[in-house]
Design a protein that fits this description.
109 residues, mainly alpha, 3-stranded parallel sheet, globular
Length: 109
Amino acid sequence: MLSCDIAISSCGVNLLERVYLGLPSLVISAAKNQIVSSLNLKRKKLIKYLGNHNSVNQNDIYEQILYLLDNPNKFKEFAKKCYQSIKKKNTSKLVDLIEINLGNKINFN
């Protein structure tokens, strides 16, 4: 995940990992229990929620990727907001240990 620029996935367990790493995510809910979480994260602008898997098509994904590629400053702000949302609230030793194991702290400059 650390070497990726964007993720396209459901609102599953590893979503918090993606948010923590500042990995912008296009999210498609795969189950009913993911809809509320997806909508809450969308409201906080931490993900781009595309909708339920039954209503999202290839063109929806393509348009979102093009939008982010055409707007690099918005793309960078999206990533930064994700990273900072978790980082502000999580200053535990566990977070520091994770960063040490990643090899370095994440830098958005």
